[in-house]
Amino acid sequence: MDKNFAGDSNPRPKWRKVAYGGMQIGYDDNYTDESFLEEMVMNANVVRRNLLKVMKDSVSISQYLCIVALVVLVWVHTLESSLDENSLLVLDLSLLASGFLILLLTEEKMLSLSLLLRYLLNISFFTTGLYILAPIYQTLTRSISSDSIWAVTVSLLLLHLFLHDYSGSTIKAPGALKHPNLTSCISLNASVVASVFVASRLPSRLHVFAVMLFSLQVFLFAPLVTYCIKKFSFGLHLLFSFALMGLTLYSVYALHKLFFLVFLFLVLLVNVVCPYWLIKMQEYKFEINGPWDEAKLCFDITD
Amino acid sequence: MAEPPKLRVLMVSDFFFPNFGGVENHIYYLSQCLLKLGHKVVVMTHAYGNRSGVRYMTGGLKVYYVPWRPFVMQTTFPTVYGTLPIVRTILRREKITVVHGHQAFSTLCHEALMHARTMGYKVVFTDHSLYGFADVGSIHMNKVLQFSLADIDQAICVSHTSKENTVLRSGLSPAKVFMIPNAVDTAMFKPASVRPSTDVITIVVISRLVYRKGADLLVEVIPKVCRLYPNVRFVVGGDGPKHVRLEEMREKHSLQDRVEMLGAVPHSRVRSVLITGHVFLNSSLTEAFCIAILEAASCGLLTVSTRVGGVPEACNVLPDDMVVLAEPDPDDMVRAIEKAISILPSINPEEMHNRMKKLYSWQDVAKRTEIVYDRALKCSNRNLLERLSRYLSCGAWAGKLFCMVMIVDYLLWRLLQLLQPDEDIEEAPDIFLHHHGEKIN
User: Fold this and answer.
1) Whole-complex ipTM
2) Beta carbons of B164 and A301 less than 8 Å apart
3) Is Nucleotide-binding given among the entry's keywords (chain B) (predicted)?
4) DSSP character string of A68-133
5) CB-CB neighbors (< 8 A) of B308 in chain A
């Protein structure tokens, strides 16, 4: 009997995604099934960001920039002798008092009397130690030229700004969970060294003590105070930041027009341009996960 | 009168004997089977200690230990053009037709592939590992791989998961990638003639004790299993940084008599360690293709393994017949070991070994690789300008950089041809070792 139509004598078996058994009959080794890459997961853990939220978060950065700018302004005025040591001491005391007040109001755990007394004791030790050591700072850099001092101070301040922890505080607030990491400790040390260098250029011991106290107060405690304000109420934080920005811009304008323009440009860059850029770049995000990923251990390795 | 070999293959990799590992084994066994099929195979690798120069291995396999020092993790120092003269000399001397590179981590492999392409040879690449995409090291490695594979003729991967991973990392078209798995030398890995008694169940672990191979999972699993089953003992072979943690675990739970630590086990002794056991435990966190499981199954052991990477494809013979899979989680692994112990009486090692002989063999791998070589040889020759357009598509800046690298390579090659013309390179005579009807498994 002739079979005029030749049907498929052996329809090839279904392709299986297995490695054993040699070549699969009817399929080449480079056969690509529709199930190719079907277990790939794209952008599973990516956080989608919102422009307004990013801009609001960037206010913390510009707020800290303003604080550092104000410190530099006070240094410049002191070095030019337009700010004398008594007014500086008054400024120090008022800053200390207002900082304490803000902490008391925003942090419930501070209200216990024993904790308060302990803090007051620590601060008085600190201030006394600083007063006693002031002569050392005064003569520290007498043999170094002014240009080197300014150059080192500027670079240390830049380092401080780069490595600063903008989301938290290096000095732990009572009850804060985050431990300070290496970069935030480096930035704190850089700012302290910068203030020592600037203080060593001043004429009298009282000057040195006042400026050191001011700088250390701000660099050590300003992040803590702003962190507490932010935790207490976000609206208050925004209000405080804008007030600070206004004060800084006015003061820089009074000092030098060019610096004012540069500072304004910097604030706009941080608050407006960078968030927009970040959101624009989000569309290029391509995170790939799949069966080839190394498995994650679900327990902690305790040595 | 012997006929001239049909194909002349150069295997290039940083990883070869006397180093031990999956890639080394693969190259060696594949080369041996290709030699038996009548082709000519030459291996090129870097010098290991004092072992430098030309050596001959079994079957007439010629190995060039090029005098370059390894600098980190057995890979040679990357000097993009430094290997051009020696690669050219080897390719001309042995009259090579196909260059086959192994392992993405090997710098020698990438350089040799680049030079081979410049000189117009056909190129094949095999990838043996899985890599991620997220960390800095992987990003750079993937870019280098994209460069290497931009102009390749064919590629081979050892599992389907590995194929997907390679295609995503390098941007190759999937039709160019062949899936050819590894195999196991079933003649060497035979089960014990007398099966050890099942009064005391022995669980064998042989792996490098590093994070990637799941040594931390072992530290969690071993005490749990020892507590549940008083008649189970463990034999742990292999060495590595996590050795200390395992020792601590032994002391903490007083398991010195139930957990035996053998230290590093040389490859020749692996079988003798395996046949003392009933169950093989593999706890790695990522695995493109696990040869260790195949070796254990060939010795008649029941395997418990983590379900990662290419392991499910290699082992889904019949559900839970030869392998019990578990998630990389200690409790799930303990459950899997319990299941393995319960089905242990029904396992017949000889039958398992015979089944493995049919499922995996190096001859099959060699034949499939031959098909890939033939395909590669059929690919059209491209001149420099056409090839440069392939490199340009690698990226906005990277594409132009790669083009510059290839142009300089081409110019250096022409310079070398001027200084030492092709005809002046002495061609090595072919050696034929005749095997009359001898088969290796």
Assistant:
1) 0.74
2) no
3) no
4) HHHHHHHHHHHHTTSS-HHHHHHHHHHHHHHHHHHHHHH-GGGG-HHHHHHHHHHHHHHHHHHHHH
5) 291, 294-295
